[in-house]
Structure formats: C-alpha cells, structure tokens
Amino acid sequence: MDDFWKPSQKVLGDMKFLQSLREYDKDNVSPPIIKKIRNTYIPNPEFVPEKIRQASNAAEGLCKWVRAIEAYDRVAKVVAPKKAALAIAESKFAEAQKSLNAKRAMLKEVQDKLQNLRDKFEENTKKKEDLEVQVDMCTKKLNRAEKLIGGLGGEQDRWQTAATELAEQYVNLTGDVLVSSGVVAYLGAFTSVYREKQVQDWMKACKDINLPCDDDISVIKTLGDPVKIRSWNIFALPTDSFSVENAIVITNSRRWPLMIDPQGQANKWIKNMEKSSNLHTIKLTDSDYVRTLENCIQFGTPVLLEDVGEELDPLLEPILLKQTFKQGGAICIRLGDATIEYSRDFRFYITTKLRNPHYLPETSVKVTLLNFMITPEGLEDQLLGIVVAREKPELEEERNELIIQSANNQKQLKEIEDKILEV
After folding, report:
1. Residue 339 has what pLDDT?
2. What is the pLDDT confidence band of residue 134, given thresholds at 50, 70 and 90?
C-alpha cells in the first residue's frame, strides 16, 4: 500500500489548500489520474465518507471531493458532446429563427399588400355599385323625361309662350318691382282711378331715366299669385283688380292693415279667410277686448278689430309698431302694464265703416291704410251674384262650385308644373 502521509502533511500545510480545491480545473482532469481514482479508490469499500468520518472529518471532506470530481468527470464526458451538439443546434436554431423572422417580415409585407389590394377592391366594388345605381337612376330619369316630353308635346306652345313672357318679365323686373313697391307703400288709401294715374306717372318716370319696365305695369302680375288670388275670391274677396290689389298690399306690407270698409266686403273676406284659424272679432267698446287681444297674441290667433273711429286706442301702439323684445329667451311685447309672450303667427286686422275718415299722420305711419270701398266692377259682380241667387239659386251654387273647382285645378296645375321643373 502506498504511503502518502508525508506528502499529505505538506499539502495540508499549504494555506491556499482550500482555495486550490475550490478553483480546481475539474473540466480538464488528466485521464491517468481519473483512471487511477476509478480503478483504485472508487471500488475500495473503505473509501466511503461514512467510514472515513470515523478517522477524520477533514479526510471525509476530501473523500467527498474526490468522489464528486470523479462523478463530475464521468457526467461531463457524457454531457460535453451533448453541450457541443446543443451549441451547434442553438446556433443553427438562431440562424433558422433569423431566417424565419425575415420570412415572417416578408409574409407580413405581402399580407399588408394583399389587404391593401382587398381594401381597394372593396372600395372600387362599392364605387362600381354606386355608379351602377346612378346609371340605373339616370336611365330611369331619361326614360321618364322622354315619356314626359312626349306626353307634354301638346303643351309646347304654352310653355314657349310662358318662357317668352318670363324672359320679358325678367328684363322689366326692376321697374315693375319698384312701381309695385310704391303702390304697396303709398297708394293703399287712394281710389282705383288715382292709383292708375299715379302708376302711369311712375311708369313714365321710369322710362324717362331708361329704367326697364312693362308697358302695362300691374301689381297683380308683379306680386300676385294666381292660385292664392283664386282662393281669396273663394273667401268672398271681390274679383275686381282694385280689391285684389288691396289683398296683395295686405300680404306684402310690414304694417298691420287698417281697411276703410263702409260696405263690409273686407270684413266678410277676412272672416271667411281666417275662419279656419279661429279668428277672434273684437271692438274697442267690448269690455274684455284687451284680455282677448292678450290671449290671441300669446297663442298666435288672428284678430279682427271692427268699427274703429278716427282715433285708435293708445294701448294698441306697441302692437301696431311691433315693439317686441326678448326676455328670458322668449319674444315678448308690453301691452299696457302687462308683459306677454308674442307669437310669430299672430295677425291683426283693423276695419272702419267710416266712408271718408281723416287719420292723423301719427296714426297713418303706424298702419297700412287701405281703401276697400266698393268699385263699379265689384258692385256689378255682387249684384249679379245676388240676382242669380234669388232667381236661380242652383246656378249660383253651380257657379260657386265651378269657382272652387277652378281654384283647385289651378293649384294642382301649379304643383304639377313645379314638380316637372324639379324633375
């Protein structure tokens, strides 16, 4: 048996012995040493930590260290090739992963391009469908237009005449509107004869300054609506031009109308026209006329003030001047000591039975004065209606039905023409 006691004492006496054990190059143990350990010491039944501990604790630690080095070398010999193979595999995997990432990037780019192409395809498909719908709609409109043109072939002359008249009216529009505005603003209180004379003077003045105007200026032609005029006639407005002009002035004036109406024809017309709007009729002599007026102003109900004299109640001044103001987000007006809401739908009519009233300028500027005295043409129409109603009431009834039917036909024709032009 080899005796290593003296060399062992020398080794154990080294102060860096433990450090050398810790730093021992266990990966590069020489094969002869490993061979000797495996052949000599590992098979030795006495070379086990449990038995060596009985002799020395330090020797037990060295025994464990030797056995650990031998086991590590045995395992390392098996694991080292595997580590090398693992390193090669990891290297190959990294290269493969890099290549995969590159391919994935290329795939992502191709997918993005494909998605863009799909989006463009969907967009173009939608445009195509929209264009097909538009083409179909245009085709249908064209077919309808051809049918319409074919159906309206008989109306060609009338439409051409109307187009020629509209072209002339367009040229003369400035002078016609100027003269008609003057009639609305200044001539309401005068007779038909004076109106005609004044219109002729204004027309001559327009021509003197080379202002284009019609040779026969008419407020009815310039500002009137045939359908609306026919509906007024149904509501008992006399058919003479003077009465129709008065009605046009009422609808185009900013001030409330005060109508000189000794025969009561304006009164009758207003009552029939505003009947469906729940017209309230009052007089200054009524005890509750102020309360009625307040309610009508608030709820937008029309009011007819009858039989006024040459002086108006000062209480009406805010209404006549439309002295409205905003309070709390609502439009209000002050009537006496009360402040009430003012409805935009409110309408106010005033009539007097005085034949030749004299209104002060202070009153005239607050209202639109209108002379509704009956004209010979209007009297003839009314007398004819009375005679026919007495002698042959069935003819008067038929006449009224024809007037209503004619008004409806004109209204329907106007609506159809407007629809045709819109299409």
Report:
1. 92
2. very high
